């Protein structure tokens, strides 16, 4: 299913019920480099994937070497113990399996693709949404800390969807050092950000 279409449908249904929607997007910091192969394989095993597939994935992720090229200069090869090959079409699938535990905590209001996560809340007011989504982001940050998954604070974004043209757009204070400033979208806005 197209995630954007599903989200737009949910926003339209919320508008039909005179409710408002708040969306937060989060980006995993260094996802390509930070994936822990043994943890991924354990999660896949817990999810019930067949042993031959687990062996194939283990083989895909082990004995990897990298070298850096800058113009005509090359570094020596170095072994890497974590991460996935960049550019691999398998990466988005593997990372979704890696994050499945987090995404499955609230399937109705949380979704992801590759190293991006989106979550949203529907409520009577934007303030109600922000209160709920602030708690959601804090839980995700705590899960990330416990699972060695870091989220890039500079890439946290929040958008309010409302039918009110000049609605107050509350910010989300996640911690003393992290506040998400929102943007607002209302039907008919000429400066609506693209979804």
TrEMBL record:
It comes from the Eukaryota. It holds the Pfam family RVT_1. InterPro entries: RT_dom. Residues 1-178 form the Reverse transcriptase domain. This is Reverse transcriptase domain-containing protein. It comes from Monilinia fructigena.
């Amino acid at each position: 299913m197209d995630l954007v279409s599903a989200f737009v449908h949910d926003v339209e249904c919320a508008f039909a019920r005179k409710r408002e929607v708040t969306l937060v997007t989060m980006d995993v910091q260094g996802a390509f480099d930070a994936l822990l192969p043994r943890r991924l394989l354990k999660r896949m095993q817990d999810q019930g994937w067949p042993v031959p597939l687990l062996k194939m994935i283990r083989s895909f992720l082990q004995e990897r070497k990298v070298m850096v090229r800058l113009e005509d200069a090359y570094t020596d090869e170095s072994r890497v113990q974590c991460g996935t090959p960049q550019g691999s079409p398998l990466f988005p699938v593997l990372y979704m399996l890696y994050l499945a535990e987090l995404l499955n905590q609230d399937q109705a209001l949380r979704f992801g693709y590759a190293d991006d996560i989106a979550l949203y809340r529907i409520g009577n007011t934007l303030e109600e949404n922000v209160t709920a989504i602030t708690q959601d982001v804090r839980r995700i940050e705590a899960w990330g800390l416990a699972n060695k998954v870091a989220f890039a604070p500079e890439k946290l974004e929040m958008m309010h969807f409302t039918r009110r043209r000049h609605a107050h757009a509350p910010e989300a204070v996640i911690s003393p050092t992290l506040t998400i400033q929102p943007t607002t979208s209302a039907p008919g806005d000429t400066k609506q950000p693209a979804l």
